[in-house]
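An instance noted here:
***
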Amino acid sequence: MVILTLNCGSSSAKYQVYDWDKQEVLGVGLIERITQPMSNIEHKSKGKDEFVAEKACPTHKEAIEWIMETLVDEKIGCITDLSDVKAVGHRIVHGGEKFTKSAIVDDQVLADLEAVSPLAPLHNPGGITGIRAAQEVLPQVPQAIILDTAWHQTMPASSYMYALPYDWYENFNVRRYGFHGSSYVYTSKRAAVLLGKEAKDTNVIICHIGNGSSMCAVKDGCCYDTTMGMTPLEGLIMGTRCGDIDPAIVPYMMEKKGLSAQEIDTVMNKKSGILGITEKFIDRRDVYKGYNEGDERSKLALEMEAYRVKKYIGSYMAAIGRTDAIVFTAGVGEMNPVYRAEMLSGLESLGIKLDPEKNSASITRNAETCISADDSPIKVFVIPTDEELVMTEDTYALVEGTYDVHTNFTYTFQHREYVNKARAEALEGNIAKNPALAKVVVKL
């Protein structure tokens, strides 16, 4: 069975084609600048050169059609006919309280998604548009939704409620929801494998550090708390998002600068975070370069971001009790040893001891590594995330009728024998360039 997964944003569409029978990725790609005068595609099929092109995509429908044309193209495609695609899985950012797990799309599901769209006005509309576009292009193919918020539905009320008027929760759905759910499903299950435990017996703290960053406290294999809140704005310092601030700053600055509610929301979401501090950088690679060159704003941004993570690690350890491991994932978490070192510095008294040489060697998205000292009571892992695989597995199980919530369901990557073929092949090249990497790769 060939499964297509789509991750549609407001102006983009990321996709992957997966052969379930062979357990391998056939093709991946991304279309950006949808709705703008000219869109661009980057596509890569297994065993073929990368394809890059431009074309007008006024809506997601044209973008989805372009994806389908690319997939079956004789020179650059990865399947012979669209009839090969037997199911489509869609990433949806916000499911509110309505969705506690992935689901097959029908008219009621679409209506329910529309109803919760006000909770994620920048994210959900693109996902819903992607579903409708895929339905038009592949009308006979089952469509599934995989929701970022579903993983977090196990949080107790003491974690997800805000100390605000209770009727705001009852009438307006104001509560913590959390995001990056598919990433936490994958990394929490893989952490259990690396620890040699059942998922239900593990307590871990996961740091998903990328342009959008969050953390998750996992107790007994389930989400106990997370840093993002009703929206992805709360919590850690991010590329352009401010994360935690004193709420009184909002009306204060609205009055001082004459800002509207929409304008202050734009500032906090798109002009704050790393960009707000440095006034020029979003990408942590630029911040790291500036840090090394003595740029004071870059140094401040790195130190602030690391300190925020460190504070959450301490509070989450207090919340979940026994902690088996700290896990780093996503772009910065997987690829930048300096950020990891700063985020864990001074935590030795809590049982977290980083090995500097192991940490420095771990720069790859193709292997799971252990970077803690041999005598560290708490392990520190770097686990490259695989949200697309979670989407694919949920979609397959839904079509086959075997799917259930993650506590009653076993993913292929929960087995010790699981191997990501593409990553295993790429790892050889990584080790050739960085021989020290071989010493920190976790071998099961």
Notes: The chain has a mean pLDDT of 94.
